[in-house]
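hi! just following up on the protien thing from before. the input was this:
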Amino acid sequence: MKGSWRVRVVEFLVGNKRNKLTSLLLAVVVWAYAFGNTGHEESIDAFLIVEPAAKDQVVISKTISQAKIGQKGDLFVGRCKITLSGPRNVVARYVESELSPQGILKVDRSGRIDLRSADLFQLPQGLSVKGIDPTFLEVVLDKVVRVEKEVRASVRGTPGPGFVRFPGGISTDPEKVTLEGPSQLLEQDVVAVLTQQIDIDGVVVPLVEAIVPLVITGDDSKLIQIAEGFPREATVKIHLQENLTREQALVSVRYIVDEDVDLEIRGDQSIKVTVTGVEEAVREWKKRVDEGRFYLLVRVTDTAGEGRNVPREEVRWIDGSLPTGISDEQVKLERIILYSAKPFEVPGEDPQK
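and the predicted 3d structure came back as:
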């Protein structure tokens, strides 16, 4: 009977201990689950986009009106801080995911906007935004309009010798384009459409043609753009005027024949030559003519005593004798007449023999 009582006491104590341990373990689990799902808050960085509710409007200004971080009047660039609220484990998982919430604020009026009263961010189920900083923004809306603007060519540099720019010598295609943007900005004269700059420094051709992008100037807001359907580039033609000097001189004509050929030649010994070119080159040419360093060469064959006009393509001059700055096309010649070219007659010999 005693032994039986002792056994029962031991069993009771041991069994009770097991029950306590089991109960304690269950309590810990329940407590952990309950604590993990109680309300929790945490602040994280976010980004907020401010855009108009209507397509024919544009946000031209958004500044901070009230905030803990930042000062009133500061430009709002989208960065903000939001306070998340929700079950601790849900908040923790979202924060650990390193996702940066991005919200959109659509505005339909100008004025002070309360960011706390709008559902701005798409968050996982169970999470909500309890606070946001800044709390207020000052937003200015404007109507989107279209305005036609003239395209102006942007040109720099000075043409090379012999060429100058002149009024009306520059044209663009298209001549005008339509811009789209806020009315209060577009209606100001400070906004213009220029071409990308074209450099003509040292150019010595009568026409420069280039296709270049268009550039909008006078718009610090970057809210003005070329309207859809209009070109983003233009063809620019820059006509340059020749600023050349013309000079005329009497130039010697020299006749040449093939080797071992001896002909009696009668023809013009000099003709008038007119050259056009850069002033310095023209002066040098006249000097060479006067010094006998520039003259004309005509190759002659037996004409059996007949006369003929010498074609322009048969007239030459020594390479290098024409100064740089005067091209072959800028040398104009009078007609050279070759009266006759025949073998010399030997005295006493029958010419018919």
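The longest strand covers residues 136-152.
Residues 245-343 form a domain with the RNA Polymerase Alpha Subunit; Chain A, domain 2 fold (CATH 2.170.120.30).
cheers
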